[in-house]
Design brief:
Blueprint: E1 4-8, H1 15-25, E2 29-31, E3 35-36, E4 51-52, H2 55-63, E5 67-74, E6 77-82, H3 83-91, E7 95-99, H4 102-112, E8 116-122, H5 126-136, H6 141-155, E9 163-166, H7 170-186
Parallel strand pairs: 1-7, 1-8, 2-7, 3-4, 8-9
Antiparallel strand pairs: 3-6, 5-6
The chain binds guanosine-5'-monophosphate.
Length: 187
Amino acid sequence: MEKVIIFSAPSGSGKTTIVHQLLKKYPQFEFSISATSRAPRGQEVDGVDYYFLTEEEFLRRIAEDAFVEYEAVYAGTHYGTLRSEVERIWGKGNIIVFDVDVVGGVNLKRIFGEKACSIFIMPPSIEELERRLVGRATDAPEVIAKRVAKASQEIERAPEFDHIVVNDVLEEAIAATCNIIDKFIAE
Ligand code: 5GP
């Protein structure tokens, strides 16, 4: 069966680290490259990190019904999954791995139903999340404050996911995630 695995988490939960480890471990996993209308940051490459579109192009693709799911994650900045991306990965017989925000994760689970396993990566606490974001030293204090406030709202939606993995000790969180995935793949 065609399958997808969806990861969502508040910013700073360690989701991206976990997803990168899993992509190395499971050769049949392929990361779904989202489209976005935000500008590339740092070393980001078009067609690798995202498909970078202008806002006009993005809106045109919405009108063409080119997206499985899309969202204005930030005001004036769209993110979404192109139908062509899903076809590209399933066409190779691979399992699609999504790394999307919490609203996108809930939407994708609704769209893919039984084909999907949705996993919410939970920080051990809001205090620990804040500590990690400060330690990462990539964001300004007001950005961190916004992310922490958003995290509280996102955590409320965790029960809408098939599984919740608490990321306290990274190795343990990865092991717990692998258990869930192994069962899902075997189904
Ligand atoms: P960033 O700009 O930091 O790369 O991503 C901002 C947010 O957009 C993150 O929470 C990321 O998970 C989310 N995001 C990335 N791709 C998609 C997508 O295809 N759909 C949705 N709904 N959110 C996405």
